[in-house]
Amino acid sequence: MSTKAAAAxxxxxxxxxxxxxxxxxxxxxxxTILTGFLGAGKTTxxxxxxxxNHGEKIAVIENEFGEEGVDNEILADSKEQIVEMNNGCICCxxxxxxxxxxxxxYKRRAKGEFNFTRVxxxxxxxADPAPVAQTFFADEKVxxxxxxxxxxxxxxxxxxxxxxxxxxxxxxxxxxxxxxxVSKTDVTSxxxxxxxxxxxxxxxxxxxxxxxxxxxxxxKELIDIRGFNxxxxxxxxxxxxxxxxxxxxxxxASFYIKTDKPLDVRKVDRYIGSLINLYGEQMLRYKGIxxxxxxxxxxxxxxVHMMAGxxxxxxxxxxxxxxxxxxxxxxxxxxxxxxxxxxxCYASDETPDDVKAYAQGSVV
Length: 364
Prior knowledge:
Layout (H helix, E strand, L loop, with lengths): L2 H15 L11 E8 L5 H10 L6 E6 L18 E3 L5 E5 L3 H13 L7 E5 L7 H9 L1 H6 E11 L3 H7 L1 H8 L3 E5 L6 H14 L5 E3 L40 E8 L5 H15 L3 E8 L6 E8 L2 E9 L8 E8 L3 H8 L13 H4 L5
Parallel strand pairs: 1-5, 1-6, 2-4, 2-5, 6-7, 7-8
Antiparallel strand pairs: 3-4, 9-13, 10-11, 10-13, 11-12
Helix pairs in contact: 6-7
């Protein structure tokens, strides 16, 4: 191990040991990641969060490489700092490790110095939000104390089409989002805006798209989205994929697989595992509801790059059509191969009618 790597490992271990214990009878703090390309309007939104009396206690973490800075008067100092605003929100700049600033905020909250109930993290205009999101899954201490709620991406209606054409980063920000906010629609025609929204739907089939005016958009519409909650109901509108009259050769794209055939959970597990091994770095987000043979409940899963998780949701209603829907969003994914391999997940006559048989070890 190199000297630099050893020092980084030692620093990470020291940080892990310094975490304050989870606050008793208080659940994890929800976190929203705010991203968007240069000039999309993130700063306008952050300034609203920090200054308006919206009734929420929010800690805003601003990346130091942001193109404009939240407020020059608030963050004029070049050193890392945490500032409490008049409306009760917290503003802090990031000078290095995100885990360290999350730890610092949590400890000060535990001591009663700050009283925030949620966190918003702004990424830079050229950043891929995936590494930030992975922090909340990969680090055990962070995972115990913070809950990733959603990734919100702001898109510039005036320049969005050009940015999506010229920059892979802009495509990735759209593809990774749980909610898309289209800004500056007041300076574009309705036709231009609709074309952009069609393009966004092609890149991300699952994220709702909203035209916003940050002067009137309620803050509460941007929180508690539960985009990373495995038990949240997956709402997919496949028609979005067929509405566009324009073809774009994007590096990032999304597609979905849907079937009413029951699945074998063992085969699904092998399927996802194989895809992660082969294409994990290219798979930005993937998520689905599964109809597993012998299981009365919906099985839900989602993943970010190399990390995936499964869980049980509510039972299938008696009058509901039992079908599986899976969405993949990524860079240069071989859609035809993903579809072909998925067919191997179908249950067969040998698949037990009771999934408990797997756990009992009687089926392999």
